[in-house]
Amino acid sequence: MINLRIPGKKENKDASAAPSEGGAPQSPKKKKKLSRKRIIIIAVVVVLAAFFVIKNVLGSKKTTTVSYSTVAVERRNITQTLSGSGTLQPAASYTVTTLVTGEILNAPIKEGDKVKKGDLLFAIDSTDMASTINRAQITLSNAQTSYQTKLKNMDNLNVKTTVAGTVTNIAVEVGDEVKAGQTIATVVDSETMTLVVPFPSDDAVKFYVGQPVDVTLEGSFEKLKGSVSKVAATDTILTGNIMARNVTIEVKNPGAISNTQTASATIGEAAGCSSATFSYKNTTTVTALVAGTVSKINAPEGSRVSKNQTIVTLTSDTLSNDLKNAANSVQDAQLALENNSTKLKNYNITSPIDGTVVLKNYKQGDNLYDTGLKLCVVYDLSYLQVTMNVDELDIANVKVGQTATITADAISGKSFIGKVTKVSTVGTTTGGVTTYPVTIQIDDFGSLLPSMNVNAKIVVSQSQNVLAVPVNAVARGGRVLVKSGGATATPGESISVASGSTPAGFEYVTVTTGLSDGAYIEIKSGLKESDVIAYTKPTSGTSNFSLFGPRQPAPQQTTQARTSTTGGNVTVTTGGAGGTGGAPGGTGGSAAGGTGAR
């Protein structure tokens, strides 16, 4: 084996003499490096030990504690309410304005007066309108007269006979243009024939109208009955200086008598001085009363017609247009009169409702120079009402007929009772939140006044004499800490335990919850009356700090009722007991599964 020396270095014989494990001697330099490693290891161990000591010391000083309070399960009345605010309004409000101008002649009301529907509020000078109505009435009368004239002219297009008889002549044809006054036809009365026979004056003066007459037709000697219709008042001298008077006799025509037939007559024992020729009783010329065009011959020559029967029909576009224009004039005049009559009513302004005059802006003697002026305001104060906006999450719980408690800051220490009268289905969406108007009526409103700001609590639901615990007592999953058989706790105690621990002698039981008023929650099952429960009240000054990061929090029973603010003026107190980080209903939710506040 060859030993080497390093120049300038002292040889370590002991070290060179000691063989290594592999048979080679260890050098002094390598042994020195091994000692430094050991020192480093020892230093690390010391630092780690110090770290754990500091951690344990600091950790023990910063340990989180939880304070539990004990309380007995008791029976309570739970009332769930929905709170809101609004401004009081009267049952109805009417602003009385004027539709006319003029001087106020009478204003018998004053502010604060109670009025009935129809009571006079203001009387305005209507002299000009009365004159206008008189002119409208005259215009209507003239229009109606003109219409009647045009209507009669239209009727005159039907050319009629004024007597019954036989048409002996038609002077026009279809299509002829006829002027007013033109002859249309001739009608004779052939049913009654007349016979003028002279009788001796001594006999004639004894005759009377209606006296029977025997008439004998010459040629056939047929006997007919007639009657005296007229006796002449003067005598006539016949041939041979015979004094006679003419007697007119009427005879019903059996159908064969014409105006060429002659006959003799005998009245009683007296005979006529001579025979005479028959004539028709009436011969009438039918004329057109208006101009027109012949459109139809209704009774041809030789036909029998009755009195007022149409013989010829005329048409006239001019008369038709005149009639339409006259009808329109009548309608316009009627509308003008009706409108003016309606306006006349506007000069006497009456109350539209039973109510109270709360504002009066004009008095007797004032002149109204324009329409639409606000004369007064009438309130129907039979009841007051308030409308508040309810969130869409809560509106399903509000029903017509529910009771509400009303309070006002202006009237401290007093509350009033109202009822929900309307739940609107028309919502308003603002910022993604939809609200619905709910109207509450207050019948007995006492000293409350319109426009006062009030607070309202609607009783949404109630549970009477039910088991209840503070809402904070119900933890996640519907669990409650209940004193077990070995515990000595009594209601009203405060128990502090380390975070993550529960009070000795208490155990969790699962409960079924019901209604909550925000402070207490109904227990439907899982507990019995007088059970002692515990719920947490975290102490101040605790910390979750740790050298190794935040500690995991112990299970908490601290809860709070859901408070939802909607529409800026409504708060609903519903479910409670949600537990930290969300109870059965989520963060801030109710144990019954309510939705968290917006």
How would you portray this structure in words?
This protein is an alpha+beta fold and 598 residues long. The protein folds into four domains: 67-77 and 464-573, no CATH class; 80-90 and 380-462, Beta Barrel (Elongation Factor Tu (Ef-tu), domain 3), CATH 2.40.30; 131-157 and 316-343; 159-314, no CATH class. 17% of the residues lie in helices and 42% in strands. The strands form six sheets. Strands 2, 3, 5, 25, 27, 28, 29, 30, 31, 32, 36, 37, 39 and 40 form a 14-stranded antiparallel sheet that branches. Strands 11, 12, 13, 14, 15, 16, 17, 18 and 19 form a nine-stranded antiparallel sheet that branches. Strands 34-1-38-33-35 form a five-stranded antiparallel sheet, with no helix packed on it. β14 and β15 (242-252) form a beta hairpin. It is rod-shaped.
Counting DSSP H or I runs of 4 or more residues, the number of helices is 5
**Gyration radius from CA atoms, angstroms:** 62 Å
Q: How much of the sequence is in beta strands?
A: 35-45%
Strand runs, count = 40
**How many domain units?**
4
Q: How confident is the prediction overall: mean pLDDT?
A: 83
Shape: rod-shaped
- Sheet with most strands: 14 strands, antiparallel
Structural class: alpha+beta
- The poorly predicted ranges are 1-34, 538-598
Helical fraction equals 10-25%
Distance between the termini: 92 Å
Kindly list the characteristics that best describe this protein:
5 helices; Elongation Factor Tu (Ef-tu), domain 3; single chain; 9-stranded antiparallel sheet; 14-stranded antiparallel sheet; alpha+beta; 598 residues
